[in-house]
Each structure stands twice: as structure tokens, then as C-alpha cells.
Write a structure and sequence with these properties.
Structural class: alpha+beta
Distance between the termini: 21 Å
Protein name: NADH dehydrogenase [ubiquinone] 1 alpha subcomplex assembly factor 3
Oligomer: single chain
Low-confidence stretches: none
Order of helices and strands: EEEEEEEEHEHEHE
Mean pLDDT: 91
Number of helices: 3
Largest sheet: 6 strands, mixed
Number of domains: 1
Shape: globular
Pfam families: DUF498
CATH superfamily: MTH938-like
Number of strands: 11
Strand content: 35-45%
Length: 132
């Protein structure tokens, strides 16, 4: 969230990094990418990198992936589930597959490494990463 001044006082915008960038590092509850840092979880989409309001241990729901379901051009979704691998519930997997996405769940560290490789190969990939 970014605060700025507009004609009517303070304006709150949903800030994001426009475009895709590899993750340079992760840990201590956040990520570093494109010479910036972010505390908390992230959605890495073709349209940009967005804050993801999920923490380790939170329930995975279709609503948690709603921004991703409106994204075009994603064939592969990597879900970094935190320190431990957790499976997505069947309703979430069904919703993602209905949008043509192959989904793979793994620890956040493995998801970061896999995302960076797939991004460098210019593959149609997105990632949902729980901060560790």
C-alpha cells in the first residue's frame, strides 16, 4: 500500500512492481528483488509483483488466489507454502486448473529457485510465495 497526496487528501493505492523480476534473496519474513525489499508474502505474476496477504499456516482459499485467477498467460503456478510443503485444498486446485494452470506446491525456498529458473527460460510462470 502506498500513501500519496491527491486533490482530495491522502490517496491509498495498491502498490506493486510492474513486470517480472527474479527473486534475489528470501528470509527474515520477506524477499529482495529488483534492488528493493518487501516484508511479507508475494504474488509474482506476469503483470507485476504484488503483496499477498497470507502468512505461513493460513488457510489456502480460492479468494486468496483471486488476483491470479484474473491474470492471463499463466501456464505454471508455483506455490511456496513456507518452511514445510502443504497441499492446496481440492477446491483451490480445481479453480486454478479450470484457468489452465499446472500447479506445483513446494517449500518457499524451492519455489523461489524454480521460479527464477523458469523466468530465465521465459516460460509462462507465476508464483505465490509465503514469506519465511
Amino acid at each position: 500500500m502506498v500513501l500519496g497526496f491527491g486533490d482530495k487528501g491522502v490517496v491509498v493505492r495498491d502498490a506493486h512492481f510492474p513486470g517480472q523480476a527474479p527473486i534475489d534473496s528470501y528470509g527474515n519474513g520477506g524477499f529482495r528483488f529488483a534492488d528493493m525489499s518487501h516484508r511479507g508474502s508475494l504474488l509474482l505474476l506476469p503483470s507485476g509483483i504484488y503483496r499477498w496477504d497470507l502468512n505461513e499456516g493460513d488457510e489456502f482459499t480460492p479468494q486468496a488466489f483471486s488476483r491470479l485467477l484474473h491474470e492471463k498467460g499463466v501456464e505454471f503456478l508455483l506455490v511456496g507454502t513456507g518452511q514445510q510443503i502443504r497441499l492446496l485444498p481440492p477446491d483451490v486446485r480445481t479453480a486454478l486448473k479450470a484457468h489452465g494452470m499446472a500447479v506445483d506446491q513446494m517449500s518457499t525456498g524451492a519455489a523461489v529457485r524454480t521460479y527464477n529458473i523458469m523466468l530465465s527460460e521465459q516460460r509462462p510462470v507465476a508464483a505465490a510465495l509465503i514469506a519465511v
